[in-house]
Design a protein that fits this description.
The protein has 443 residues and is an all-alpha fold. It folds into 2 domains: 19-48 and 251-314 and 352-420, Cytochrome c-like domain (Cytochrome Bc1 Complex, Chain D, domain 2, Orthogonal Bundle), CATH 1.10.760.10; 63-244, Cytochrome Bc1 Complex, Chain D, domain 2 (Orthogonal Bundle), CATH 1.10.760.10. The chain contains 15 helices and 2 strands. The chain has a two-stranded antiparallel ribbon with strand order 1-2. Helix 3 (63-74) packs across helix 10 (220-241).
């Protein structure tokens, strides 16, 4: 079992051609215009469908929950003290070391800026209470993932994802007791209207989480009461995040093209689309409405950066984490308890160094790229694949599909032009959020 960073021993050569792409090249079915009917059929598979239900969160589509969730998403008071990297005025710091109440979901996942972090410097990973070891992925369209969240899939729902940052030492550095008190003092009416009665926690410690004496010293019933409030905190945030999907924004040029506006794509973007679904092999993993198979792959991305972990085994650790998560879909806090997806799920050597395929929607807005933010621009990304991955040090073995592509610089430019066409426009008006979907919430 290999945990140390290394290069794949296999010298992979040739081109990565998706089977569907090979069919396109072989069909010879050309019509008027740049795309064949086979091309168009493939491109239509990227069309977004309505967002499916989330049975684990009975408040997922409740407007009141989304409104509360937005307030909590923007509320930085959930956070504890900033760490030593924070110096006001430098590196995008949110304050000075020791300051509290400075970090919220909005800090590293700004929905008005592609749902990612445009603040932290260096930009490879995010600066909250400290520097995170991974790049902040976009929150826009995260609700479309039926299960796995985070780069390693260590949680299995959108609401349980929202529970990790508040207590993360390098993120909000707060605690579930502090979150529960904030809800009880400032959001009680909204909480009760959605989730029912709040227990009296006025005599509980002001802060604490598992592993802290303040939390561990509570009775099991009191711990469960706090955990219930904390879980509902995550469900409210998830209800808001379910509104942060591409259909809530003006359509991207690509979506306009799918809707029949044939001139919405530039000639370069159309050429890039043909490469994407054909000889570039991109759609092998970046497929479906999110341009993601929502699975995990080792693409040989370099494990580097000032604040990235020296080694990162990705999905290998994520599997154990989701199994042990007290807020997974099989837990008592899930509204539709199910663990079928966890039964028999075990980590193997093949999982070392695998990371979740990110969505390509809005990708031009979410630099830097890869799980550790190793690449500052899209040129670096497409060039990585063009040379068959395996750049620098990484853990595990690359997927067999990662092969040199032998694309020209013009091909790469066209690919980047196509990727740019996947960016949504401005958020559309919504009655639920008169101030705007991505703007600071109204009091």
């Amino acid at each position: 079992m290999e945990f140390l960073p290394r290069r794949n021993a296999l010298a992979l050569v040739g081109t990565a051609v998706l089977a569907a792409g090979a069919g396109l090249l072989a069909s010879g079915c050309q019509q008027d215009g740049p795309f064949s009917e086979t091309d168009l059929a493939m491109l239509r598979t990227f069309a977004l469908s309505p967002l499916g239900p989330d049975g684990s969160n009975s408040s997922a589509d409740v407007a009141l929950a989304a409104k509360l969730g937005k307030q909590l998403y923007f509320d930085t008071r959930i956070s504890g003290p900033l760490g030593p990297y924070d110096v006001r005025g430098t590196n995008g710091s949110l304050g000075n070391a020791g300051d509290t109440g400075k970090v919220g979901c909005i800090s590293c996942h700004d929905p008005a800026n592609g749902g990612s972090d445009h603040r932290s410097q260096p930009a490879a990973t995010s600066l909250g209470a400290g520097y995170t070891p991974r790049n902040s992925p976009t929150v826009i369209n995260a609700a479309y993932a039926p299960l796995w969240q985070f780069w390693d899939g260590r949680v299995d729902s959108l609401w349980s994802q929202a529970l990790a940052p508040p207590e993360g030492a390098n993120e909000c550095n707060g605690s579930r007791l502090a979150v529960a008190h904030l809800i009880a003092t400032d959001y009680a009416a909204a909480y009760v209207a959605i989730f029912g009665p709040l227990p009296d926690i006025s005599g509980f410690p002001a802060s604490g989480k598992p592993g802290d004496p303040a939390f561990d010293g509570l009775t099991s019933d009191d711990q469960k009461a706090i955990n219930r409030i904390f879980a509902n905190f995550g469900k409210a945030i998830a209800a808001y995040e379910r509104r942060l999907v591409s259909p809530a924004f003006s359509p991207s040029p690509f979506d306009e093209f799918l809707a029949g506006k044939s001139d919405s794509l530039s000639p370069a973007a159309m050429a890039g689309a043909k490469i994407f679904i054909g000889r570039g092999g991109c759609a092998e993993c970046h497929r479906g409405p999110l341009f993601s198979d929502l699975s995990f792959h080792n693409i040989g991305a370099p494990q580097e950066g000032e604040h990235a972990a020296i080694t990162d085994v990705g999905r290998y650790d994520g599997i154990a984490a989701v199994q042990a998560n007290p807020f997974n879909r099989g837990s008592e806090f899930s509204d539709e308890r199910t663990n079928d997806h966890l039964t028999g799920l075990t980590a193997g050597d093949d999982d070392i160094g695998r990371f979740k395929t990110p969505t390509l929607r809005n990708v031009s807005k979410t630099a830097p790229y890869m799980h550790d933010g190793a690449y500052p621009g899209l040129w670096d990304v497409v060039n990585h694949y063009n040379f068959g991955g395996e750049t620098g040090l990484y853990s595990g073995d690359t997927d067999p599909a990662i092969n040199p592509l032998l694309l020209s610089n013009e091909d790469l430019d066209n690919l980047i032009e196509f990727l740019g066409s996947l960016a949504d426009g401005d958020p559309l008006p919504t009655a639920d959020f008169p101030e705007g979907l991505t703007a600071n919430p109204q009091p």
